[in-house]
Amino acid sequence: MPENDALTIARAYHDAWTSMRFDEATALLADGLEVEVPINDYPTTESFAEGLRGFGAMTRSVELLSAMSAGNEAMLLYDMEVDGLGIMRVVEHFTVRDGRIARIRQIHDTAVLRAAGFAGPAERVA
To answer: Which of 17, 55, 75, 120 is deepest in the core (most CB within 10 A)?
Structure first.
């Protein structure tokens, strides 16, 4: 596989953060990373990296269910067990440019996260 292949890079990022190698995962993120997630806001690569360290440290296990790519895009589907939250199913869509992840889009059920207080005050479920 080519070194800059989107799936290779997405898997390397995933393998790094799920193994608590956060510096290695962060090194795969482009400056000016765009992040679309259902909860919270990460305006900079650094703010996302900080969030990844915090949430990643709470993750107990991750089971990768599917991985696919086309061109400069890749998708991973996985179940992760998180302290205090239980098991969550997550889909991540990556766009890779120049060998680094330029955009991450995440989709997951937010009910458990909101109940646990991960949303800002205006976003919390009553």
So the answer is: 17
The model carries a pTM of 0.84
pLDDT tens, position by position, 93-108: 999 999 999 999 999 8
Strand order in the sheet with 100-108: 29-36, 100-108, 86-97, 73-82, 59-70
Pick the CATH number of 6-118 from 3.10.450.50, 3.30.70.270, 3.40.50.300, 3.40.1440.10: 3.10.450.50
Could you state, in order of their start, the residue ranges of all structural domains in the chain? 6-118
